[in-house]
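A further point concerns the way the authors explain their paired sequence and structure data. An entry of this sort, consisting of the sequence and the corresponding backbone structure tokens, reads as follows:
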Amino acid sequence: MFRIGKYDFNYSRRVFMEKAAKGTAGAGVLCSSWPLIAQGASIKKAYPDELISIEMQTKGKVKVGDIISKDNVQYVKHLCDPFLYRQITEQGRKIKIRATTLDVTEKMYSRPFWEATMRGQAAGGAKFDADGNLITVGGKKWTGGSPFPDPKTALEATINLTLAWGRADMTQYAVRETEINAAGDIDYRYDFSWMELMVQSRTDGQVLRNQNDLLRQQVVWFTSTEDVAGTSFLSTWYYDQRKMPDLYGYLPQFRRVRQFPANQRFEPLVPGATWFLTDAWAAGDPMLTWGDYKVVEIRPALMAAGGNWKGKRPNWEKGRHGGPKGNTFFDTEFELAPEVMVVEAKPTGFPRAPAGFKRMWIDLRNSMYCADIRYDRNGKEWVNFETGSGQLTDGDLTLYYEGTKDPIWSWNYVLSADIQTGRMTQIEHAEKVAGGIKNRWNVPAEEVYDKYFTQKAVASFGKI
């Protein structure tokens, strides 16, 4: 096959502008990237060299291994989201550049999720019904994996995020959260367990306990500090993306489980936090409770798509730097993603929502976001829920799903930055946290359902 060695920047820019103007994309510039990904091949044939080489993108000013700081960020300004650029220029943030991942099939998916995705595509793929909900081409509810691995519209890209947050049937994450104020001082530290159990859209294609109306159960359980230990929340998601999840919480000081209103999704769960439930996975609310979806632009961008799991460090803790006290940002690695879809949506189902709209920066290689920027009602930048993700690999150390040689894919960190108050929430994927909480992936559902994912279980957390 003849491959043109070089295209100027305007060629790719024109292609991306045309896609965005049509509101329908499909990844790839020289050819579609999806057939290459589906075959397990490199995506190199789908893009000009300038979109897969940071050296060529910056005309030799930046190379793999370089540290981007305020001294050289001008060379990658066009690749930064608004928050990343301001953090580097104004707050002393630095990021390390890693090579662009070209073997998407092996590096940017977990094998169970990938296999479920391919089964779904082999069966004909997905579509939206008259109500806007996702169904198979045969009219049934989606059976697991990514429904649109080559998303062509804003809705297709968003439902990929909404339907499978952690891209596993069951996850229990050990999480450490640190709240840093504008002066760089630590106001709060929390340990908690974040648990997700898919009822439908599972990689095994099953429906748990014949609960055909549900999508997932999700639990947050705080184990530290002492003033919040035992505080827990259960969110029950319906498959119908027009319906709000049922949110129940247990507050130890009241010693009872109570139901919270829908607008609780726009309030912090604990003091000092800059993130809300609506921010989770850039899709913390059912897709159809937001509206006016549109593709703002398609562009290359720097994304935290790998290299950020620090499994060799004690408790997987990342180094820190920047800000007034040198502790505001994690040490992170970013890579040049050749094609990123910026999707905008408005909270149409929340009349009193403090947010005006959000913009999700979605990597079209695997439909995972990195930046999720929340804007206030005046259209001003408010919070960026930045998430790094990738395989749990650190040099020669790799974590595998139990009983397999399949590397675990997961989120690695979150930096939730409130640009209006100067506050930063650091969320670390830890090895273990207070309460003996450790990570678990794809544990059999019947082993954990009654123990964690019911109102009775939520109440019991306050007594442990």
